[in-house]
Amino acid sequence: MSSSTSDVGANALPLGKYLASTDKKTRDKAVKSLAAFLSSARQPLPKLEMAKLWKGIFYCYWMSDKPLVQQALASELAELLLTIPSTDNSLAFLSGFWEAIVREWNGIDRLRMDKYYMLVRKFINASLRLMGRDEWNREAILAYNEILARKGGPLCPEDSRGTTRPTVSFFDPLFNALRPPMQEGPLTKRPRLDSDEGLEALKGNSCLENPEEGKIENGKLRQQLCQKMFDIASGSDLKKPLDETKKLLTRNNYYNYYFCITCV
């Protein structure tokens, strides 16, 4: 047995060099080993180890070079979230994913960008199914929101790194990923959304910030959401006209802002 295969044993954390190997069989075996390890792990990996692991996973996906292979691998990697028994451990793994994506995003060339969009879509879908598995537990949802909106997260409104964050690419995959979980049968006895009409159902059952406030009427939600965006865009001076407000925004953040307004 070769050293590359013997070192990637069952229930062992595969080294990054095996995940990012140029040999597809070695990469496949490393992913299987990773799934076995994550499904049996009782504690999340330390932050440094998680970063190293995701560095290897990122380049494992980087090395996939055929559409069907890429699609299968994206699905397999996203499903790892649901093979982890503990929601806390799943969220730690998900946090590692977004940290890796944000960190590496600016280095993705245009030929590989589409396949990373697909990976993001798969993880958004798996994240929502993870929330459903946990019966939409409030603490889990708040932890997920924190992963996305904290400084350095893909949806952080105050992060100045601009183009190095996949912010715009998040929204379209989010809306697309929402549809399948909403169309599936209920996972628990918790009441489902009022309708199954995709984005309209999402907006009609949304709150602004605090889930305990309950859902807000769509017109009021739009007004309050737009006001918050203007507040962030214009800083402390909320009386500036729109043209001056635009000048305060980076080009990238302005397009993010405009995209959000048109989607609400």
Please describe what this structure looks like.
- This protein is mainly alpha-helical.
- The protein has two domains: 15-178, no CATH class; 200-234, no CATH class.
- The protein has helices at residues 3-6, 16-19, 24-40, 47-63, 67-83, 87-104, 110-133, 138-149, 167-183, 199-204, 218-234, 242-248, 251-263.
- It is globular, with a radius of gyration of 20 Å.
- This is Ribosomal rna processing.
- Its main location: nucleus.
- Pfam families: Nop52 (PF05997).
- It comes from Pyrrhoderma noxium.
Strand content: under 5%
What's the oligomerization state? single chain
Averaging pLDDT over every residue, what do you get?
Answer: 76
Number of domains: 2
Low-confidence stretches: 1-10, 186-196, 236-242, 248-252
Strands, count: 0
**SSE run:** HHHHHHHHHHHHH
Structural Rg? 20 Å
Q: Note the main sheet.
A: none
Task: Give me the secondary-structure topology.
Layout: H1 3-6, H2 16-19, H3 24-40, H4 47-63, H5 67-83, H6 87-104, H7 110-133, H8 138-149, H9 167-183, H10 199-204, H11 218-234, H12 242-248, H13 251-263
Subcellular location: Nucleus
GO cellular component, one term: nucleus
Keywords: Nucleus, rRNA processing
Give short descriptive properties of this protein.
mainly alpha; globular; 0% strand; disordered N terminus
Describe the structure concisely.
It comes from Pyrrhoderma noxium. 23% of the residues are buried.
